[in-house]
Amino acid sequence: MQTNIEFSDNVLTAETFEDLGNAIHDLEIGRLECSEPIRKVIIKNINRNLEKYEVQDYLFSSQLKELEVVDIIDAGKSFCSDDGLVYTADFKYLVFCPLGRRGTVKIHEGTERVYEYACYECNFNHLIIPSSVKRIEKYAFNRNRLLEYVDGGEELESIGDMSFMNCTSLKKFSFGPNLKRIGEYVFMNTQLTKILLPEGLKYVGSQAFDTANLKDNGEISHITPDKMYDIHLPVSLKEIGRAAFCNAANIYTKEANLSTVRAGIRSSGASLGHGCDFWKLHIDGLQPIVMPKEIDSINVIARRVRLYTKGETTSPPETYSESRLATKYATALEHRKLYPGKDVDEFLSENIEKVFVLTIAEKDGEKLMAEYIKSGMFTDEALQTLIEHIEKSNDFSDNASKYTTLKAYALQAMKHSQDIFEI
Q1: In whole angstroms, what is the distance from residue 197 CA to residue 397 CA?
Q2: How far apart are CA 201 and CA 203, in angstroms?
Q3: Is the model's pTM score more than 0.85?
């Protein structure tokens, strides 16, 4: 073994970071072997001024995936360590957290910034951010799949792009009153469902809250209605990226514009089921607008919303006509539920077969379709078309029972309608 490298009891001791780099290289090519995983690295001396990214380059290695602690003995130059984490010598920056660190990580009091990639792909589940931290830089905690809770951070002013992206277990994050900026994709693929944005926030980037569902096996799955969230937009928030709140069920605001309309749409084109295919825009003093998650003509819908907010139209605008695929029909059904009218009735009558096919294909689709029929959502014309569609359907082998039941509901609804008319 090299004279300036020692390895014993899972501890690798190196004279300098350069010596550590040489040892890692020798391990990777098989020139050097360690019988046990490296859990601690000791750096005796920092012999020159290193950049923050250089320190990370030495420590980000497949040979150090089990690393839990970094200890810098000569802490007088450029960098130091505290509780196994690497900081700049003045503690202003958190530079690196070992990849194998587990449990709780508490950032040193006095630290002001978390450097980019500082805790990338780590394995701790609880993070405590002191009030001294003002800025989290891009990718800082990206891909920490075990991270569940973040406490503190009440003085944060900026959260950088993708900083918590793919933290698939993250369920809790509090936003302090000084926060001004949330970057793009920051909480993408997390499990946040309680999102309280502070007054004073000015910017939220595209897909910042593109959250996800997590299967029992740990795989990322499409969002489900119970994982959607409500958003109350601060008056101070003027810049909102496209699909920033794409999994919101409800967005509440004092005023609405193009950015507000874009904020609630989804980034992908796939239907995620009836309950996830629309959202509601709540503008102070007005009835909520049912909005599709997929929009073809954002400017058209934005104009309708603007006319509604100015009082030039008295009823919540219909938006389903500017949507696509399944989101179009889910939005129309929800709009019809809240605001019955001639236009939406005609639309559903013209598209009843597509509505039926898409609804019945969903989980519990038969129950959902039955509720629509029994609640009077469809005109007699639509029900007659639906009955004819069921009768001529060739797919009776698997669906005969459910089709027959729905046909009976449709016939009963038509009879009830006719009885009311006769009375």
Answers
A1: 52
A2: 6
A3: yes
Q: CA gyration radius for the chain? A: 28
Question: What are the C-alpha distances in Å from 88 to residues 95, 112, 118, 128, 294?
Answer: 7, 11, 12, 19, 46
Identity at 208, one-letter amino acid code: A
DSSP 89: T
pLDDT given at position 423: 37
**Arithmetic mean of pLDDT, 181-200:** 97
- What is the distance in angstroms between the CA of the first residue and the CA of the last residue of the chain? 99
Spell out the SS3 assignment of 166-210. Answer: CCCCCCEECCCCCCCEECCCCCCCCCCCCCCCCCCCCEECCCCCC
Summarize the confidence of residues 297-311 as an average pLDDT. Answer: 96
The residue among 98, 27, 23 whose CA lies nearest residue 67 is 98
Burial class (CB in 10 A: 0-12, 13-18, 19+), 106: middle
- Residue 168 tokens read as 């698939």
Q: Is 268 helix (H, G, I), strand (E, B) or coil?
A: coil
Amino acid at 408: A
**Amino acid sitting at position 114:** V
Contact 322, 352 (CB under 8 A): no
The three-state DSSP-derived secondary structure of 29-69 is: HCCCCCCCCCCEEEECCCCCCCCHHHHHHHHCCHHHCCCCE
Q: What single-letter DSSP state applies at residue 274? A: G
Cα–Cα distance, 246 to 266 (Å, whole number): 5
Question: Tokens in use for 143?
Answer: 């891909």
Classify 207 in phi/psi space as left (phi over 0), alpha (psi -120 to 50) or beta: left
Q: Are 251 and 245 in contact (CB under 8 A)?
A: yes
Residues paired with residue 8 on neighbouring β-strands, in sequence order: 11
Position 271 confidence tier, pLDDT thresholds 50, 70, 90: low
- Residue 316: pLDDT band (50, 70, 90) is very high
- Is the pLDDT at 403 greater than 70? The verdict is yes
The answer to whether residues 229 and 247 touch, using CB atoms and an 8 Å cutoff, is yes
